[in-house]
Design goal:
Blueprint: E1 8-12, H1 14-27, E2 33-37, E3 43-45, E4 48-50, H2 52-62, H3 79-86, H4 97-111, H5 116-126, E5 132-135, E6 142-147, E7 150-153, H6 154-160, E8 169-173, H7 182-188, E9 195-198, H8 203-212, H9 216-223, E10 227-230, E11 233-234, E12 237-238, H10 243-249, H11 256-262, E13 269-273, E14 287-290, H12 297-312
Parallel strand pairs: 1-2, 1-9, 2-5, 9-10, 10-13, 13-14
Antiparallel strand pairs: 3-4, 6-7, 6-8, 11-12
Helix pairs in contact: 1-2, 1-12, 4-5
The chain binds ligand FO1.
Ligand FO1 binds at residues 13-15, 41, 52-53, 55-56, 71-72, 93-95, 99, 155, 158-159.
């Protein structure tokens, strides 16, 4: 129940979001942080429930993440994939031997009837992670990409097709029946809560699923603590992933102003990079201009401190 005493909640999806979670995890005393993570990227693969954004946060905070990719584990071996290839199985989604244990054990506990949030909180704790890693919902929500040639499962689009298809619309299958994970509502209700942060994740693919879980956005808005987002773009470009490409395909300008507009009504402030200093007056909310590139552990730690300090002024 460490999340019931959270001081800070951070919304995260993808590799970029996990970097800010890591900075906050390093900056804050153990147990003060709760990460509310996207599960729209989850899928059943080889009969296993894979939760990529959750695992990216867990591995990053545990110091186990592959530094080159940001996802999966460092010091991996690939015997499973080698034999899978020989057997003619799908190899487009790469599962390392050690990573495989996470998917197998999560699947075993889900099949036994445990809710995703209970399994996730426990697996993170078993890897020594003191931050509460909370899936946005225990129900199945699946991000689907609508293209001119039909709709695609998320990982098919993002990994197998390398995010090349042109997006017309993004939908979240199962979102209507989804409820916020109990642990998420407990963290939001924490009497110690000081701020809610939105990581520099892809707003459309990674944050919108979280904000679309019925009741979650309102619960955060009504809590009455500052809500601050970190802009995922620097100089009109995404630091990692297809955010800028998707914004163009959705007819959006790749600017901090478009990001601020996307989060309008939710955020009280936006953190933007020095390269985008000229946009500060155009975001409609107070903007904090700083260096947002988290290319080192020190940069993650520094940005985390600055974001929290900025939230404290709102
Ligand atoms: N991303 C890839 O681009 N290629 C992969 O083979 C791949 C495997 C993978 C395995 C486990 C995991 O937790 C994540 C993995 N990812 C892979 C990343 C994942 O597709 C994305 O990080 C999220 O779904 C979007 O942020």
């Amino acid at each position: 129940m460490i999340h019931a005493s959270a001081r800070v909640i951070v919304l995260s999806g993808g590799v970029g979001g996990a970097r800010l979670v890591d900075g906050l995890h390093r900056h804050l005393p153990a147990g003060d942080l709760a990460a509310l993570v996207n599960t729209g990227d989850d899928f059943l693969h080889l009969g296993l429930h894979v939760s990529p954004d959750v695992d990216t946060v867990i591995y990053t905070l545990a110091g186990l993440a592959n530094p080159a990719t940001g996802w999966g584990r460092r010091d991996e071996s690939w015997h499973f994939m080698e034999v899978l290839a020989q057997l003619g199985g799908p190899t487009w989604f790469r599962l390392g031997d050690r990573d495989l244990a996470m998917h197998a054990e999560r699947s075993r506990r889900l099949v036994a009837g445990e809710p995703l949030s209970a399994v996730t909180l426990d697996l993170a704790a078993r890897l020594g992670v003191s931050t509460a890693v909370i899936p946005m919902t225990d129900e199945a929500v699946r991000t689907r990409i609508q293209t001119a040639d039909g709709s695609l499962d998320f990982q098919d689009y993002f990994v197998r097709l390398r995010a090349e298809p042109r997006i017309e619309r993004i939908t979240f299958e199962g979102i209507v029946g989804a409820r916020p994970a109990g642990a998420a509502l407990e963290a939001i209700a924490s009497p110690l809560l000081e701020a809610i942060l939105v990581g520099p994740s892809n707003p459309y693919l990674s944050i919108d699923p979280i904000l679309s879980v019925p009741g979650l956005r309102n619960a955060m808005r009504l809590r009455g603590v500052p809500i601050v987002a970190v802009c995922p773009l620097i100089g009109g470009q995404a630091v990692k992933g297809p955010t800028a490409k998707i914004m163009r395909e959705l007819g959006l300008e790749c600017s901090p102003q478009a990001i601020a507009e996307h989060y309008s009504g939710l955020i009280d402030g936006l953190v933007i990079d020095e390269a985008d200093r000229d946009w500060a007056e155009l975001c409609g909310v107070p903007a904090c201009v700083t260096r947002t590139l988290m290319d080192t552990d020190a940069a993650r730690l520094r940005l985390a401190g600055e974001v929290l300090a900025f939230a404290g002024t709102l």
